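Quick log. Single chain, no ligands specified.
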Amino acid sequence: MSSTKQTKSPDRPKEMRASKRPGVEKSPDKPKGLNVVSGASGFLGSHLLHALLSEGRPVRALKRSSADLTGVKQVFDYYGDSALFEQIEWRDCNLLDPFDLREALAGGKRAFHCAGMVSFERAQRKPMLHFNLNSTINMLDAAFNNGFEHFLHVSSSSAIGSSPDDIPANESMIWSREKDSSAYGHSKFMSEMEVWRAIEEGLPAAIVNPTVILGPGFWTKGGSSSIFHRVAGGLRYATPGTTGFVGVKDVVSAMIWLSAQGLTGERFIVNAANASYKEVFEQIASALGMDRPFRSVSARQLSILAGLDAFLSLFGLPRHITREQARSAFTTSRFSGEKLSKALGRPLQDLESVIRETALYYRKDYPLKEKAPLP
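-> predicted structure:
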C-alpha cells in the first residue's frame, strides 16, 4: 500500500473503585486476536488498555523506549485492577520507522492508533505535522501488510470543519485551512486523508473525532486532565469560548465497540456536551469543593499575556499560553454526537457526572487540605 502526498477528501468524511467503568456496556461481541495500541503510555491509551483487558481482549502496547509508565499504572489502580497491568505486552517501537513498525504489528488483528503529537507552539508546527502524518501512514501500511481485520484511527474534533449558522458541526463537515487555522487540526485532517486512502485500498478502518476528553489520571502532564489540576491550584480566570467535552470511558468504549463491529468507511464525533470554558471551570471547582467565581478575561488581555509569555520563553521559561491557544479560548465551537449515540443505541455520560466522578479520583490523589501545585 503506497502513500500519496495529496488525497482528495471523499464525499463522506467519515464513585471510585466501586464504579468500575460504570455505565459502560461491554461490546456485543469479542473478536479473537491481538489488539495493538499505539500511544499506549498516554492518557487515552492507558484507559483503552484497561478497557480492552477488562473485557478479556489481549493487547500489545506500543511505546517509546523512554516512555514513563507511571501514569498507566495509576489508571489501572484507579479501577482497582492493578493485576491487569501485568497482562500488557509492551513493545518499544519507533512509529516513524516503517520496518520497526511492521515487526511490531506482526501477529496482530486490530489496531487502535492513539499516538499523536499536540502542540500550539509555532516552532513545533512542522515536527507535529511530520509526526502525526507519517506515524499514521506507517501504522496504516503496517496494518495493511500484516492483514489486519480492522484499524481504528483516533483523530480529533479539531479536524472537523466549521459549521454554518451556529449549527453543531457533524461528521460531514470538511476541515478548511482558510476557515480552520489550527496547526494541530491541520495535522489531524491530513492524517485522516491517509486513513481514507487506506480504506479505498482495502483496509477496513474507521475514525473517531473526540472533543475535549475528561477523566482521571495524568493530572500534571499538560493534557485535558490538567484542567482539574489548574483549577485546584488556584485558577480564577476563564474565557467565554465554547467547545465540546466527553468522558474518557465513553471514548474508549465507543472505540472498542466500533472495532468489534468492524465498521469501515465512517467517522464518528465523540461528544457528550457543548459548554463554555467558564461553565466547565465552575463545575470542576464545585466538584472539588472549591466553589468560587471565575473572572472573565478579554481577548486583548489574553493576547497581551500570550505575547509576554512568548517573550519570557526567550529566557528559558516554559510556555503557558500561545497566541494560537489564546485565539482558541475565544472560539465558539459546537459539535453533534448524535451519529455515535444512535449507533450505540444510548446517550453518552452527561458532562456534570463526568466532572463529579473525575473530581473524586483527583481528590484521592490531592486531598482537599493539600493545595495542588500548578504544573
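The first helix runs from residue 43 to 54.
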